[in-house]
């Protein structure tokens, strides 16, 4: 039973085929980088597997649960950082974590969560309006880690971060993966994906055009050239 499986997954919006018969396999325990240019369909795939939108055709499972009928089990075991995750400027970091914990009916070990994402207790007691972008992103990750999910789904987690922020975020992802968590994250930047992913899937126009380890994809020269060109 894999972490994510899709079979013929398809989503059509009016004239746009956003996801086109996708067969995706993400294994448990791996860091999977979902790479593709803007508009390739990455967010739509994430929205489909989490049942935020309904497929035109095909099916998906997450941790063995059916995306359309077993959503509650999927949400309980999956931490999500959506693209451009919304934080509430007037609330503190601690209040965000407490709110997510209440919403999920679980306890939040705030000091442990902060430690995992590199935020201090002082940070937690400040309003999020005063956070840097990187701190906000790390808080969003801490929120996703509440409830100790088996799978983390991160949509463009590094976008808009400066190089230091990207490096910090990458380290956190590595540590979470080392703890045995499956991490699925999307990006349109090859360098961000290959530095941390065990395997990469390349999406273009809603279709998977290549899958492999970073070394395998580097080895196939034509593919690497085209990624460099496109993203
Ligand atoms: P980005 O990183 O820019 O978000 P992406 O790879 O995540 O890119 P999607 O956001 O999934 O791509 O978009 C895939 C295609 O589907 C695009 O052509 C987009 O315009 C279209 N699309 C996505 N959501 C909708 C929607 N709700 N209604 C109409 N078209 C949509």
From TrEMBL:
Ribosomal protein listed as a keyword: no
Keyword annotations from UniProtKB, A to Z: ATP-binding, Nucleotide-binding, Transport
Positions of the ABC transporter domain: 4-230
Transmembrane regions: none
Recorded GO MF terms: ATP binding; ATP hydrolysis activity
UniProt superkingdom: Archaea
Family under the similarity heading: Belongs to the ABC transporter superfamily.
Protein name, as recorded: ABC transporter ATP-binding protein
Species: Salinadaptatus halalkaliphilus
Full-sequence portion shown in this chain: 1 to 231 of 341
């Amino acid at each position: 039973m894999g972490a994510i499986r899709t079979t013929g997954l398809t989503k059509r919006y009016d004239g746009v085929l956003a996801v086109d018969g996708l067969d995706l396999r993400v294994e448990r325990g791996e860091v999977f980088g979902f790479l593709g240019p803007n508009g390739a369909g990455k967010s739509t795939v994430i929205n489909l597997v989490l049942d935020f939108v309904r497929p035109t055709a095909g099916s998906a499972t997450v941790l063995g649960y059916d995306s359309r009928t077993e959503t509650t089990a999927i949400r309980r075991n999956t931490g999500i950082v959506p693209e451009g995750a919304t934080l509430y400027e007037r609330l503190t970091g601690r209040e965000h974590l407490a709110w997510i914990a209440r919403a999920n009916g679980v306890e939040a070990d705030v000091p442990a969560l902060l430690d995992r994402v590199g935020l201090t207790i002082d940070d937690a007691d400040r309003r999020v309006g005063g956070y840097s972008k990187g701190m906000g992103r790390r808080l969003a990750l801490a929120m996703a880690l509440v409830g100790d999910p088996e799978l983390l789904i991160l949509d463009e987690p590094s976008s808009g971060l400066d190089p230091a922020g990207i490096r910090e975020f990458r380290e956190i992802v590595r540590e979470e993966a080392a703890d045995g968590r499956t991490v699925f994250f999307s990006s349109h930047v090859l360098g961000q994906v290959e530095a941390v992913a065990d395997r990469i899937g390349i999406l273009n126009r809603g279709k998977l055009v290549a899958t492999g380890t970073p070394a395998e994809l580097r080895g196939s020269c034509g593919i690497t050239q085209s990624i460099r060109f496109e993203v």
